[in-house]
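pinning this so it doesn't scroll away 📌
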Amino acid sequence: MSLYLILMLACFGPCFLLSFDKKVAFFKNMRFFVPAVFAVATPFLIWDQYFTINGVWGFNESYLQGIFIGSLPLEEVLFFFVIPYCCVFIYEVLIAYFPNASLNNLTKIFSLIFVLSGTLLALMNLENWYTLSACSLAVMCAIFAIRGKYIWYPRAIFAFVVAQLPFLIVNGVLTGAATPEPIVWYSEFHITGVRILTIPLEDVFYNFSLLMPIIGLYHYFKFRFHKNSR
């Protein structure tokens, strides 16, 4: 079994088992998660395919199963379903166990720093495909959520911040923190070169732009279902 696949299973397994926790009962919400993740993962996979073909990033076959869907390894495709599953699970856990958490200050400070830094990075790196696209999309997602005053957004920020520790571990392994060569490599021509350990800074913005729309759609489907059930 490939290291990349082992990593995805290691992420998914504990979250899946804990999703049956009675207080969280995340397994009951699959009807809302599935359409949300497919709606967002599909364009991200197209984006991923395009950047892979054009050498913005790529994959070390030494750490792969060798099964490809287009130019993407199977493990990379699974990434777009496993990581959102884990993040939405964290989102629900925090709601269940910290229902009264005060998140106004966290949301305001995070959003301000995130939007300003993302905008500056995008404007200063117009020729870097990854920097420009990831930062621009993340900033647009944040501004859209802020302007919409969506009830889910503060909780989503809380979940995103909490998820940064496992994010550092998973992305660290993917980018070579624990292996002689990275599982996923990035062209130095399309990133700033600023890294968190071995992780390109752009990955933080990329993950934000993946996860926020999924949580937003998940909340929308869940809210609509419960509203129609009354």
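📌 and the second one:
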Amino acid sequence: MKYFLALLLIVQSVCANPTPTPPVKPVTRERTMSLDKRYLLLPVKNRPKDKQHASLIVDGVAVRKFNIELDEKPDWFAHLDVSDWKGKTATLRIDNLPADSKAADLVSTSDEVWNAAGLYHETLRPQLQFSTRCGWINDPNGLVFYNGEYHIFFQHSPYSWSGGGPHWGHATSTDLVHWREHGEAVYPDDLGGPWSGSAVVDWKNTSGFGKDGKPPLVLIYSHVGNPATQHIAYSTDGRTFTKFDGNPVLKNISFLNRDPKVFWHEPTQRWVMVLYVGEGPAEPGKPMPGHTIQFLTSPNLKDWTPASVTKGGGGYDFFLYECPDFFELPVDGDASKRKWVLSAADSAYAVGSFDGSRFTPDEIRIQGQSRRGCFYAPQTFSDTPDGRRIQIGWGQAPAPGMPFNQLLTLPCELQLRKTPEGVRLRRIPVKELETLRGKSWKNDRPTLAEGDANPLADARGELLEIRADFTPAADSEVTFNVRGVEIRYNAATQEISGTDVHAPAQLEEGRQVITIFADRNYFNVLAADGLTYMPFPVIPKPENLGVSVNVKGGAISIHQLEAFELKSIWKK
């Protein structure tokens, strides 16, 4: 019996702890195809791991290299434009693919992108803010007005839902509201992938890239390979871009040099580059390295000379310095009183003076909006026809289950305003957004007290804009419930909050001005008449369409309280 019991214990042990199945060894798979249509459709699974590296080989040359989340049970199909090689035979080479995977067999050709009929109208598709057709999007790059259009370029992983393998995507608009996507402007190459940067119109053709009297549009971006270097590409039609054959135009300076912001400095008649440069990787037993913003100058966008260095702090707080932007604005609209603004990826900024070579800040660091991983790497447009300084940022808003992920935020005009604390940035949603307004509901009561009926009880909509201007009592707490999402203003603490974000929002002459834009998965909240910006991701329940406003504590005097139903930016 004891032998039987021992055998039984062994069997139970084996059943409870079976020998693990060895993992399927990844292999390289090749598939040869005729490029008979405009796109290759590639099956993609939304997962953060197990990416493959793929190459498209035509005539023995790898013309495209990219990372992809390839899978035989795809959530969606990415599209790779192969129209440049239509009629040729190509080989798709995929590395790190499980040996038993049949994903490569699902690759096909098509003259249309996947789900063309439902494009831009998916369940969680932002309807007020730009998002890419498919794949991952993050930093806005190269915001510029050129040939009668606003151009946005952006960090884009077109074959992945979770990022990695950056390209420069591209879209244009004539009104800052309705956008048309054009596909990739800059692709990865043997020198690395194109990371963040900027764009300028070379009006004087200092680069020599212009032709037939047309000034070139020049893109300036980082290649974060080994080492990291700065590169340029150019276009005279705003659609097709050619990489400069003399790249890189700026060799590696030090650890982590990237994100060039370039502009023309009229007083000195030369180009200026603002570049984030880390001082070096951490070494055991030594202080943490610091961070710098370096200024360089050039006569032609090709040859760069160091001009000055602005020192930052030590440690791994590089988000305080990366993705710099640099621009000049009048204070309170007075053109005779102008200040320069140096901003960082987390929206912190400094205001000061600039002589064409060196920036001298009045204050070292001014905190931007409340940051909870939801707004990052904002950039402003160059060459706007009316001189406005318009900013768009990366809205970190996951879109689970969708073929796209993340978005670019509402365009806001930046102004400098003098406040008791000093000169501060103010954001105003661009006036063009008013064209989206449809039905409106306006409050006609002069006051709102605790227990009063909801003044916006009739307001309903999926896409909404709420505008409020009021004078609160010292102990007032005002709650805006927009589609089930609560945004509170506390007059005693002079703070605004929403979900788990909060930010200071001071009264101005006793008044508070709040604007709320509600999209499908991201809210933009501005308070203190634009001195406070508090965006955050949130997905309201589809059945929640109403708006309410209520007060606790002392009553408020209402100067304006209005709700607007908004139309989608996407035209069917």
